[in-house]
Amino acid sequence: MQQILDLLPLVGMMLATGVVAGILAGLLGVGGGIVIVPVLDTALGFYGVDSAIRMHVAIATSLACIVLTSISSAKAHHAKGSVDLGLVKRWGPFIFVGSLLGTVAAAYIDSMTLSAVFGGVALIVALKMLLPLGDVTLRDDVPRGVMLAFPPTMIGGLSSMMGIGGGTLSVPVLTLLNQPIHKAVGTAALFGLFISVPGTLGFIFSGLNDARTPAGSLGYVNLIGFALISPVTVWCAPIGAKIAHKLSKDQLSKVFGAFLLIVSARMLYRVLGGA
Q1: Which run of H or of E encompasses 164?
Q2: How far is it, in rounded angstroms, from Cα 19 to Cα 214?
Q3: Cα–Cα dist 111/109, whole Å
Q4: Cα separation of 173 and 160, whole Å?
Q5: Buried b / exposed e across 95-117, counting CB within 10 Å, b at 16+?
Q6: Which of these, 67, 40, 34, 65, lies nearest to 55 by C-alpha position?
Q7: Which residues contact 147 (CB under 8 A, 6 or more apart)?
Q8: What digits encode the pLDDT tens for the residues 37-56?
Q9: 163 — phi, psi (to 5°)?
Q10: Nearest to residue 71, comparing CAs of 15, 26, 16, 24?
């Protein structure tokens, strides 16, 4: 009985994480990993999981949760006609390959370096979304030809290394490529599937022989966290999608910019020696 009572704070934290992550997934086209990863990392530390693999477990579990969240969010956006299936066909394979490469690289690249790069990029795109820059873009349309592979491969690689669904990067990238914000958010939701599936499988196989993983884990994916968080995120994602389509283009851009500003501040604070 006492063991069950000891788990209640962790259960409550994971369920609350699922609510916030699900609403963010539907609202902004992100997979919720920006919320899931830091909360799981903290919770796993509280329960004594080895600090050397805590982030591996948090990222892997986050990616597993994003599989279901992405499906739910993408279905909600597709019903409203805001998923560009043509772009998904062109970018999807490169995002998939990038995610596989990112999963492999995660074991070798210093986390502080990743945090610095991601925090800097997030800050730049947040300012772009928040400042009155009008319809500033880098190109008139999504690149084709030899340049086609670069943006989606980078999005897939960085996203899988951070345990996020890809919307944090693909939404601002797509808006800079002159794509409407609602279409960018809806398409990014489906991109999350191309990131989370190979990322999850990669972390499962890479952690199969690691004896430091917590109870209830398959490789680095903690099935207890997955079972608690995933259903709630799936239930809440359509709520976020409904909110997104009630906002104007300018309002949605500012919400996404504020979200990215918080993410970048957290990343850069960590790099500079914060908690």
Answers
A1: none
A2: 24
A3: 6
A4: 17
A5: bbbbbbbbbeebeeeeeeebbbe
A6: 40
A7: none
A8: 877 887 788 777 887 888 88
A9: 75, 30
A10: 26
Which tokens sit at 38?
A: 């830091």
CA 161 to chain centre: 10
Q: Do residues 196 and 64 lie in contact, with contact meaning Cβ atoms separated by under 8 Å?
A: yes
Decide if 209 contacts 41 (C-beta within 8 A): no
How many Å apart are CA 179 and CA 240, to the nearest integer? Answer: 20
3-class secondary-structure state, position 220: coil
- Number of domains, the chain: 1
Give CA–CA dist 143/139, Å, rounded. 8
Range of the domain at 202: 2-271
Q: In terms of DSSP bridges, do strands 217-218 and 221-222 run parallel, antiparallel, or are they unpaired? A: antiparallel
Place of tokens 């690249």: 109
First to last CA, the chain: 34
For helices 249-271 and 33-46, what crossing angle results, to 10°? 30
pLDDT digits (tens, 9 = 90+) for 170-206: 888 888 887 788 888 888 889 999 999 999 999 999 8
- For residue 217, list its beta bridge partners: 222
Q: Are 195 and 66 in contact (CB under 8 A)?
A: yes
Give the separation between CA 206 and CA 42, rounded to whole angstroms. Answer: 22
Per-residue model confidence as pLDDT tens digits over 106-153: 877 765 776 777 778 778 778 877 877 656 666 666 667 667 788 899
CB-CB neighbours of 249 under 10 Å: 12
d(CA 75, CA 112): 35
